[in-house]
Each structure stands twice: as structure tokens, then as C-alpha cells.
Amino acid sequence: MPVSQRDVRNRISSVKNIEKITAAMQMVAAARLRRAEQRIEALRPYASAIRRMTREAADAAGYVPRLPILAEHDPVKNVGLLLVAGDRGLAGGFNSNIVRAGVAAGREHEAGGRNPVYFASGRRPASSIRFRGLELADSFTGFTDRPAYADARRIAERLIAAYVDNEVDQVDVFYNGYISPISQVVRRETLLPLQQATVLEDDSEAEEEDGEDKPRHRAEVEYEPGPDDILERLIPDYIEVSIFRALLESTASEHGARMTAMRNATDNAGELIEDLTLQMNRARQAEITQEIMEVVAGAEGVG
Predict the structure, then answer these.
(1) Closest Cα to residue 194, out of 227, 218, 223, 220?
(2) Residue 170, Cα to own-chain centre: how many angstroms?
(3) DSSP 8-state class, residue 86
(4) Which of 25, 85, 200, 303 could bond to 95 as cystine, CB 3.0-4.6 Å?
(5) Which of 60, 57, 82, 62 is nearest to 72 (CA)?
(6) What DSSP string describes 189-252?
(7) d(Cα 223, Cα 232) in Å, to the nearest integer?
(8) What 3-state class would DSSP assign to 87?
(9) Which fold has domain 5-24+261-302?
(10) From the CA atom positions of the chain, what is the Rg in Å?
């Protein structure tokens, strides 16, 4: 059955409305992305400094497990997996990439005889974990568009309590690392135990900023009352800052992914409008041709 001009015209109108919505969402995401980039740039020096201080204090203390938070659990039976994503969709594969990476890591741990314990930051990963029939230990939602440091502290306190209470023996975090508006990479970092922490590696970012050829001189630090006491104060801050940075990176990645997805949707809507307009013009031409043929046939019949 041929499509009428009215049906095609209605479809064009609907697609144009969608195009306006996606274009508006693209502009909103672009504005929020810039603010998220500024927050990441402001946090990086502090995050690098506290990680460096924690690493140096841990080296000086020799990893003495005097505190429960410093104790390395052996054997590792339960592994906490924190999945950091968003509360909303319409951002391409932003949320699904984190869920896939976290679930794949959970399966690897199960194959190794360890039990994965899932934590989620964001409604999307939380609902995806439940949908897959996996048990969710805790979730944190409602702040992914603009996370505050208090949100990172709340997550850190929950993870620290889980580690100290032997609910988990290791804590890994998964999040989208922000590279550019069109490029995000899934990152996996180990937060606890401190002996296995992957975020306490040498601060390559600070070295790049200072320059490779510039000599770096650091004075030997003497701790009072002692490096283990300093660690007792530093470790909660290190975990909070590491989680806060993951939240900020994830937020910037979400806005970048949504901006890209909405731009692609807007472009696709424009192409669809062109195709529908061409289809409507062809239908109109066919109707005009049919009317002309009817007029000619009528004239011949009268003549």
C-alpha cells in the first residue's frame, strides 16, 4: 500500500521535533562537559600530591599492618567491585561498557575461586546488576551529573567498613577515564589493600608537567610521630580522593559520550528528514502525474 503524503509529512514533523530535542541535549551536554573538565583539572594536583604522600609514607612504614585498614587479607576470598557509571542513559555505550567490564571481572574472580561483591555508583549499573540476577551489596545514586566530595566520602566509608569488617578482601573500582569528548577508556584500579593499590604508582602526570629533562630533587622526609600513624590519617583521604577523581572522570566521560551520541542522533535525524522529503516529493509527483493522466484520458473520452 503506497504511503500518502500526509503520512510522510507527519513523519517529517515527528523527526524534526526529535532533531530539536537531540540538538538541545547536545548543547546542554557540551556546557556541562566544560565544567566537568575544569573540576578534573582543579583536582589533579591535590590527587597527585596525596597519592605521592601516601606512597612515600607506605614505603617508610614498610607496610606494617598495625591497623586493620593496613592489614592485607590472605587468602583473598571476597573481592569488592565498585562500578562507577551514570543515573541516566542516552549516552551511547557509556554505562554498558562499565557493566560489561565489571561483570567480566566478576566471572574471572569466580573462575579463580573468589566471590565478587558488587557495589554501584549510578542507577544504570545498579539496575543492570540486578537485571542480570547478581547480588548488589550497596548502591549510590542521585549525584552522577555533578558529584560532590561528600558523595565520594560516603562511598569510601562504605568500602573501608566492608574491608575492615572482612566483608571484602580487596576493592577494585571501574570507571570511564576521560580522554576527550569522543574518547573514553574503561579503567580498572585497585584501591585496597594498600599493598596492591595500582593508584599509588609514580606520578607520571606530574613528571610530564615538570619536563623529562628537569632534575627532580626531593628531601628525605622524617615522620613524627611515625609513618604508620601518618598512614592512619592519610589512607581514608587517599581512598576518598581516588573515588572522587573516578566520579569526576566518569561525569566528564558521560557528558562527552552524551554529547557525541546526541550529535550523531541529530545528524541521523537530518539525513532521515532528507530521505522522507525526497519520498514525499516523489509521492507528490506521482499524484500529479496520475491527475494529469486522468485529465488527458477524460479529454480524450469527451472528444
Answers:
(1) 227
(2) 22
(3) -
(4) 85
(5) 62
(6) EEEESGGG-GGGS--HHHHHHH-TTS----PPP--SS-HHHHHHHHHHHHHHHHHHHHHHHHHH
(7) 13
(8) coil
(9) Helix Hairpins (1.10.287)
(10) 28
pLDDT in tens, 6-63: 888 888 899 999 999 999 999 999 999 999 999 988 998 888 888 888 777 777 766 5
Q: What cell does 245 get?
A: 577523581
Asked if residues 196 and 170 have their Cβ atoms less than 8 Å apart, the reply is: yes
- 30 to 8, 140, 257: CA distances (angstroms): 33, 25, 10
What are the pLDDT digits (tens) for 138-174? 999 999 889 999 999 999 999 999 999 999 999 999 9
Cis peptide bond upstream of 236, omega within 30: no
Tell me the CATH number of domain 32-208+222-259, given options 3.30.460.80, 3.90.209.20, 3.40.50.11930, 3.40.1380.10: 3.40.1380.10
Residue 147 φ/ψ region, left for φ over 0, alpha for ψ in the -120 to 50 degree band, beta for the rest: beta
User: What share of residues in the chain are helix, strand, coil (percent, to 5)?
Assistant: 65, 15, 25
Q: pTM higher than 0.90 for the full model?
A: no
* Spans of all domains in the chain: 5-24+261-302, 32-208+222-259
Complete DSSP assignment for 124-183:
HHHHHHHHTT--EEEEE-S-TTS--HHHHHHHHHHHHHHHHTTS-SEEEEEEEEEEETTE
